[in-house]
Amino acid sequence: MSSDEPSIGRRYLQETRYRREGLGERGPAYPAVPRFKEYPQASQRLVLDPAPGPAAADLWACLRERRSLRQYRERALSLEELTALVWAAQGVTLAGHPHLLRTAPSAGALYPVETYLAVHRVTGVDPGIWHLHIPDFALELLNPGDCRRALVEACLSQNFLGAGAVVFIWTGILNRAMSKYRERAIRYLFLDAGHICQNLMLAATALGLGCCPVGAFFDEEVEQLTQVDGQEEVALYLAAVGAVEGR
Ligand SMILES: Cc1cc2nc3c(=O)[nH]c(=O)nc-3n(C[C@H](O)[C@H](O)[C@H](O)COP(=O)(O)O)c2cc1C
């Protein structure tokens, strides 16, 4: 590649800019896919109860105190804590809307980001990889068992991924967003994931827990853990959560 040829990342940003001279459709059209993913074959299903929320927290204090924390205590999370975290990340706040509007914004209300949990230590929840079913606010067990070692390895040997109580894993379903926004949709996938993760971090802070986002991972290994194909649904982002000292 010659040095004056723009790199793939720069080309992507240039080629997906909205320009006044033409917002017309460019590039191939992509098929619509279902708005919600579900696993009817899941070996366990756990419907979460979002009703009894934890004690109120001061938003400004949470913004001040939010930090990426990577040292976790042994303590398991309670189901109530897990429920609050999941709700903060992707809870439905306008159930009457056809897209089930959530705690985090999403471009075009398409919600291309799927949430999976690697549960290590949550009271009353079996360890394993779970998927969040949005309409029922339910966890679906995809792969039972201890996945700590695989997760640490998938995340470039960052040990805190195995030390926390739960790891949130976010993937993106490309056509759910590309069917409307074509190539520009890829920008929105990452923006959506960022909003979700910040909600999670603030909720973890409000609950006195520690949380750390993770963007360094071997994509294919995370996709294997979540059983997604890495083509139509790809790994985007993770975040570890656990109990911490002094909170
Ligand atoms: C997109 C993104 C990816 C990140 N990836 C990692 C990671 O792989 N490992 C890690 O330890 N921290 C990771 N972090 C956390 C940052 O290191 C952290 O946000 C930064 O040092 C600022 O500290 P603070 O979050 O405590 O304010 C990531 C943060 C972001 C926003």
Description of the structure:
- The termini are far apart.
- Helix content is 31%, strand content 21%.
- Helix 3 packs antiparallel against helix 7 and helix 6 (174-181) packs across helix 7 (185-206).
- By secondary structure, it is α+β, with helices and mostly antiparallel strands.
- A hairpin with a 4-residue loop joins strand 5 and strand 6.
- It binds flavin mononucleotide.
- Flavin mononucleotide (FMN) binds at residues 67-68, 70, 158, 212-216.
Beta-strand portion reads 15-25%
Distance between the termini: 51 Å
Main sheet strand line-up: 1-6-5-4-7-9-8
Could you please say which CATH topology applies here?
Answer: NADH Oxidase
Q: Count every beta strand, where a strand is a DSSP E run of 2 or more residues.
A: 9
Structural class: alpha+beta
> In sequence order, what are the helices and strands, one letter per element?
HEHHEEEEEHHEHHEHE
Low-confidence stretches: none
**What hetero molecules are in the model?**
flavin mononucleotide
Short summary of the structure?
The chain has 247 residues and is of the alpha+beta class. It has helices spanning 8-15, 59-65, 79-90, 148-154, 160-163, 174-181, 185-206, 219-226; strands at residues 45-47, 92-94, 101-102, 113-119, 128-133, 138-144, 166-173, 209-214, 233-243.
